[in-house]
């Protein structure tokens, strides 16, 4: 098994999953989606999570993203056990520490690019922060300084994903979660988006990405974790060369 050190410094770990299970009740049936998953994610790591459809990738991402809680075991995000904090504390942790980038962009069609980037700050407003200025700065960072006033319907897929990345960064999160971020993009645009993630990683961001693309995972991620039938396949999990 390829793994991190047995006892890494605790302040170096941003996500820790211990013996995590997730079951769903469907009628009289219990569907076991995750089974005894253990995972550590270091600060500043670029981790890719791979696996076939139904392997539990999105469920694990939901656990890490504080969108769901495990049936058994424990998930710690920035040192906090997501099972032991209130819903309001969980929402605050999710809003302040995690930035989400989705395959389908999830932009609000009636808002401009600038307004979409500002959106996550409404629930988690930091005192003394110039939100409009921060949003402009981030759109400039992703190469959309001339498209700030455009609505999603006036943007290409690649431009929309750049807006989504800027939106994910607006609260200065510790972790970026990207679920198939290039899945709806052509190869050239997908490479441009991955170059943005690479730049964020070089700046010290922790990036956790779900992908079906092995070549993409091997090219950009520090480490690749494979899920199969709700468990981590230790034989396939590997650390990529620097």
From TrEMBL:
PANTHER family under this entry? ABC TRANSPORTER ABCH.1, IMPORT ATP-BINDING PROTEIN
Q: Which residues form the ABC transporter domain?
A: 15-242
Q: Extract the SUPFAM superfamilies matched here.
A: P-loop containing nucleoside triphosphate hydrolases
What GO cellular component term, any one, is given?
plasma membrane
Q: What is this protein called?
A: ABC transporter ATP-binding protein
A single Gene Ontology MF term assigned here is:
ATP hydrolysis activity
Q: Which organism is it from?
A: Methanohalophilus halophilus
Identify the Gene3D superfamilies for this entry.
Answer: P-loop containing nucleotide triphosphate hydrolases (3.40.50.300)
Q: Which domain of life is it from?
A: Archaea
**Any idea which UniProt keywords this protein has?**
ATP-binding, Nucleotide-binding, Transport
Query: In its keyword annotation, does this UniProt entry include ATP-binding?
Result: yes
